[in-house]
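Running this now, will post back.
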Amino acid sequence: MADALVATYSIAACDLEGGRWGVATQSKFLAVGSIVPWAEAGVGAVATQAYANPRYGPAGLALLREGATAADVVQQLTSTDEGRAQRQLGVVDADGGSASYTGAECYAWAGGTSGPGFAAQGNILVGPETVTALADTFTATAGQPLAERLLDCLAAAQAAGGDSRGQQSAAILVVEKGGGYAGLSDVLVDLRVDDHRQPIEELARLYAMHDLLFGKTPRSQWVTVDAELKAELVDKLGRLGYDGSLEEALPAWAGTENLEERVDGVEQLDPVVLRELRAR
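Update: finished.
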């Protein structure tokens, strides 16, 4: 794959307690999510940009998989790359170690910073405030889900100036071992806005939909289905055209609405499912 000029800002980060790694990015570039973000559960995350070398993604993850630190990955990838002066790279490893690299010939303003669990970087920016906003927001949102922290980082970076050329695309990738669909995928969140006037806002809208359909409400917050609620559910489902027992009607409706990941039997009900059903 040829190099591509991906002038952008990004943050590669992790939540060690939650076992999640991810990358969020925005750029005045078509489909930035097709080049910049790379991540593997239990291994790390890589963001490759500026006059981007897309091979940094899979090669960086391979090095991390072998036990290299984030700093080692940056050193090894750039030392063997004749175009390193025009590259920009952010890496977070399995232990939360991080490193950010900006080549001397990246278009101004260009730079990066790193700290525990994150590497933030950008080029062709209005100024360093964008990268500072990425780093400060990530630190300030500790304790929140990683995807939400990364989206907050993008919004803060844009408010601080963002890409000096404007906006076009944005993306978020978050991985967790067994955290994806049906527990059979490690991809927890993988959303892209390839061409939009307000890509960060659109990305946030898509994430809200994703969380509705695939998010997980703690089981302790689920509602017990007593006789009264069961009667309500059967009546409501019947009015929507889903006749028969609750055991048959509820999963049939949930499957139609893409809410099957939030249904597990009929003894208890995810409050999100209950809210959505009542709203129909």
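The two ends are 47 Å apart (CA to CA). More later if anyone needs it.
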